[in-house]
Amino acid sequence: MPGKLKAKIVAGRHLPVMDRASDLTDAFVEVKFGNTTFKTDVYPKSLNPQWNSEWFKFEVDDKDLQDEPLQITVLDHDIYSANDAIGKVYIDIDPLLCSEAATVISGWLPIYDTIHGIRGEINVLVKVDLFNDLNRFRQSSCGVKFFCTTSIPRCYRAVMVHGFVEELVVNEDPEYQWIDRIRTPRASNEARQRLIFLMSGELQRKIGLKVLEMGGNAVVGYLQCFDLEGETGLVVRAIGTACTLEKISTLTSASTTHPSNSSPSKDMKDSPQAAPSTLGCRSTHSSPVHSASSRLSQGFSVSVPTLLFAGMGSGGSAGKDAGPLKALMRQQTQSALEQREYPFFTLTSFPPGFLLHVGGVVNARSVKLLDRIHNPDEPETRDAWWEEIRQEIKCHAKALGCHAVVGYSESTSICEEVCILSASGTAVILGSRFMQDGPLDTDHRLSRQPLVFSTGAERVEGDMGSSISLGFEEVAPPGCGFCHIPYDELNIPFPAQLTNCYCCRRYKVPDVLFTTIDLPTEANITGKGCLIQARLCRTKKKAQGEGNATAISNLLPFLEYELHTQLMNKLKLRGMNALFGLRIQISVGETMLLGLASATGVYLTALPSPGGIQIAGKTPSDITYEQHISNMQKKINDTIAKNKEIYEVNPPEFVEEVIGSPIPEPRQRSRLFRSQSESSDDVSELDLSYGKKDAFVLEIDDTDAVEDIHALLTDFPTPPGFYSCNTEIMPGIQNWTSAIQMFTSVRVFRLNNANLTNQGLNKIFSELCENLLKSFYFKLRSMVPCCLCHLNFTVAIPEDELIQVAVTAVAMSFDKEQTLENGRQSGDKTLIKAITENDEQLQFSLELNAELSSPNPLSSTKGLSDVSGSHLSARAHSVDYSSFADRCSSWIEQLRLKAHIIRRGSVKTTSSLEKASPLPEGRSRSLRRNRSYSGSSVAVVKMTPLSLLPGAKIIKYLGIINMFFIRETTSLREEGGVSGFLHTFIAEVFAMVRAHVAALGGNAVVSYSMKECVFMENPNKNQAQCLINVSGDAVIFVRESELEATSVQPQSATTQTSNGGEGT
Amino acid sequence: MSVELDVFVGNTTIMDKEVYQLWLNGYTVNDAVKVRIEGGIMEECEASAEVLLSDTMDQYRTFQMCERLLHHPAKLANQLLFQIPPDRQAMLIERYYAFDDAFVREVLGKKLSKGTKKDLDDVSAKTGIMLKSCRRQFDNFKRVFKVVEELKGPLVENIRQHFLLPDQLARDYAAIVFFANNRFETGKKKLQYLTFHDFAFCAGQLINHWTVGAVDNMMDDMDVDLDKEFLQDLKDLKILITDKDLLDQHKSLVCTALRGKTNVFNEMEANFKNLSRSLVNIAAKLINAKDVRDFFIDLVEKFIEPCRSDKWTSIDVNLYLIHYTNSVHILDTFKHHGVWNRYMGVIKSCILRMYHE
Questions:
Q1: Which end of chain B is more exposed for a tag (fewer CB within 10 A), N or C?
Q2: ipTM of predicted complex
Q3: Measured between alpha carbons, how far is B81 from B94 in angstroms, rounded to an integer?
Q4: Residue A979: which of B52, B61, B80 has the nearest Cβ?
Q5: pTM metric for this prediction
């Protein structure tokens, strides 16, 4: 069925001078969609033409609407010679195809030329009339919403989470076609830009079809990537999580949409009293990076998971017989969750109740040799490669006793014809919550009942019971539940040190926990978090073809193991015990491999306190040597002590009741499995752990260990007032102001000295990263106190001897004073806020009150029923008695706290009533706003890599922004050298993103990321080229303060909390 | 081992006021880093020289990219490349168009031509202002001049609207444009004691009272040229010195009024005819463009210096000029009261401003 696309060209401004004689331009515009082209009249002799054209109408198939961009070309009319192109604008009309997103694109968009950059702006109007398509066999998937955000978008509610969707399309890269020899660089670049636009459109459409097939209406955590394979082609691939989302009506949204900002359960974690009063616990484990491989049968390429989340118990049973992977694989196929091909989720933060237990990080890599893709319509090899990797991931998850993988992502690194494919995620056990409201869930609920869940069955049932009795939004999962091991403690898949949970004391927890997800909002943590990076460089011999691939795959396990050791050491050095948002990037070059692991370290209250790091010399012979060692030891101990102070890591003292070895000397071993794809089918298993040695005794006779120690101690401490993390929001900081600054920074470093040792390289690489961070701290010093959030490092080896590091992050200020008040008050405030809001919304007050007023008393009630009513094992029962008493007292404490809160709340209400009616306040606010906008005709568009804006509420998602640009220059020196060139280009990309968001009617981009930044230079020829791919979600937000100003009732606490969110 | 490429781009363009000033002052990146290090920023922020260098380079690049926009400040507000909050935009513009008094004093009244630009290295050497900064200031003058030269309507308002400058700065630019257009001589040794602000004040007076726009707001002629008709009429004032009766009558009126009110009465009485001749001659000559150029030197040589050598105070000068102006209205044969007032009003305030005791 066709749709009608309408475009109108209004005007241009700031056009470049195209006619030197008159210093003016005779501009006209070509509007092209598919194969249809319209032209405007020539507007003679003006740099600010007013075309005011008619509506150009394109009647097209909705499939084309999804695939094709609207292409607008501005040209200079020339009587005697060919018309000169000024530049182009590609408009993705996808946001207009969804009824809930934007309705019109209207505004000034930069005219972009791949050689000259932005050359003026054009004002356009674009609309789409779409007719309903009832054809079952349709090719299009209009109406499926896409979100880059890796959590449930703020103004939606997840009715159901269907699962993993993936797709890839391949094509020849125009840059490598024969025709490229004869066409201009501009033509070549434009062909590439257009092709990638088309391919992403097609990809999105195909993914959309899969989503519709699964019964979903949206893709969350949509991650699209390009592989510029060079000669062999161009691959565009995407993964995402299919969901059924339901828009929350504006009335109710206030209380339910801020899971990370104001959800009481999160704030509670800061008050120590709240911590122990949690639900029953089950043991968990720490998975260090569990990287392995096994060959599995492949064959089916399309994932059609039609079944819902019914496989609650599967993980449990999986844990029981976590035996040989292959056998396990076959045994588990019964379970509903596993019937789908990949139980993967690209989400990194979840609605409460979704995540039950976290196993640990799983990742898989494989090295491939690129070959020509013969038939672009059947990209079998690439599909097969990814399938293989995903199967591995699935196996690893199973080995950890988990039935699902969350925080899942895929990436590649290509150098010449070698390609490393990587996938990683966090193995978890998920809750059943997202089938309950679904229309299909009744059938599956039954299948869920007969569960064999060795350790956690009662807990799960209790959970379900409570969710049924209380209505399902209410289940606030305990702050420690997710830490409990998902596998059977008697049958640990790899050596780990288990202790009883430090929160609930009932279930097993590992000594360390690594994950790729964001810290769950309900998690109990102690102190603040910090960015932890492991950086590694390994030299490699130059080689060709298979030899090269083999060499690389031989190096990979070592690289990964060392990265892991570094992470572990740095974590200990900061006195923390868990990593979130772990992202390991391995980049391949001709003569080296780079590894960069970034994560946010935190101290999970539920996990044991990490031991220190001990240094031991192998040959304690002479005294100076001993001295040296003890000096080093002292330094390390001092650093740990200092770090504990900085990050406020001072866990409450617990009476040790450890089963097994004592905590201060935790042992860690990891087993690394490795896959080498071009090798034969046998499972190669490599145990790279320190063998029988204790991992945290570093022997400094070992050169590696010396290096490790140096690496540990050379890390620059963050200057006062700064925090950094690579997760969405810094654990332990709540009172954000609305001042944010997103930035992108790129550095390229040349290694002039060809014969560097591994150590030398390591040092250089590490310094490069440290210096970048230092630069950020310096540049953003005016924002102190602030936190650099979502620090996303991307490393690449663009050519031999070059290291490129690109970082995108956001600096967010927070209020210092409130922090000092120990977060408790802010917790109170948000609570009050929630309550006041609640009271307004009468129809919800009953359920929501239960949820919002006190998650802790609630959970302790649950705990009560848990203890009394469930069939606990004898041991768990006896252990639990003591903690039960604990819980009771803490519950009383909670009640007291709550009473206190209410009192405080009422005081505030009266005070604000005395003040004045909110009307004048509102007026002054709007006045202020007007003033700030005056003098600037360009609307401010905020950008952030996070899914939220502090102090603001996202009220509408306008659609996905996915843009690809190429910029080339043949006058590099004149444009300020490589730095000048790239600086301009990045600024231009920002400008285009902002302009397109503004044209959609938005005022911010969330979940923004720069997924590709490929920079190539040839200084001798005075040339450079750069490709950038960015994406994000265009949104409309409103300041919380403005929201409240419009509401008639004077709200006491609400105005209070959001006051910080004023000044931009 | 070297950093080959190093960029930092913020969604909101980050600009450090201090670095901006260093850039405006014409410092090279390395010199700017030195200045910053001396300013103690390293200790304050725990930064290294490397970090400072990287930051300074980034900022310099940003400023260079912005410079093109600053040439047309109105564009800064509706360009899309840099997201700069309005208050920052205002700061950028104001500082970019700010100038050094020492510099402007050197080029005030000169033709804003290529020739003058070539001599800027001399100006730079003389004033100690870096050549780069001199060039920027000169180019600013020239740019403003070129834009408003062709425009109709009030000069100050035009400048303010086109360059988004704050009021005082717009007035100063109006003065510079006015001086450049009329090529007033300001460089003579005798005029060296006058500051730019003295001249700017005088320019304001001239613009407000002697141009066409001054008499008739509705006239859409320009503010930069003096009112030709008025200059023509000034010739009629000659009667005050050519008609002997009138001159004597004028003198006696002034002396009567002044007697006993000042310590330099005798000098006033003695010099009256000379001074009166000077002022009226200046008026009569203004019709010639060349004499317009000498307006300020004439005022100094023919009026201010004689008074100063007789040790008149400003109060004396003021008193003298008041009575000198007003007494004319009592002369029954004198008919050109309008022109006289228009002329003397400006002359009086200029002389008072220029009269440094």
A1: C
A2: 0.89
A3: 20
A4: B61
A5: 0.80
